């Protein structure tokens, strides 16, 4: 038998700031990488072989340009890259699906990396789950 628990968290001011920075940085990186991919796609749209050979910018590339991205968890930024790659794969599999024009809102589940056991924000520990909410 499975049990579910619902919790409401009340983060401290520092934790709220870190959570909001993480949301904003992930949104920024997603939108920057999306713009980069759109530009490359427009440039090489007709030549599919050249398009496949193109190198896309990574979150680490943006950290060199924007120092403030180093303040948040790098795995959260890497997840933005994975979400963008999934959107592109879905788009090329079925173009009628389309892809999001920008990352306007992000669920907290998408920010918590699944490769680690828990993310600690001071005394607040968030653990990833398979819950769809």
What does this protein look like?
With 133 residues, the protein is mainly alpha-helical. The protein has one domain. The chain is built from 5 helices and 2 strands. It has a two-stranded antiparallel ribbon. Helix 1 packs parallel to helix 4 (74-93). It is flat, with a radius of gyration of 17 Å.
Distance between the termini: 20 Å
Number of DSSP strand runs: 2
Number of domain units: 1
General form: flat
What is the tally of helical segments?
5
Strand order of the largest sheet: 1-2
Mean pLDDT: 77
Q: What is the percentage of strand-forming residues?
A: under 5%
Level of helix content? Answer: 40-55%
Q: What is the H/E order?
A: HHHHHEE
Rg: 17 Å
> Could you give a short account of the major beta sheet?
2 strands, antiparallel
Class based on secondary structure composition and strand pairing: mainly alpha
Taking pLDDT < 50 over at least 5 consecutive residues as the criterion, the unreliable ranges are: none
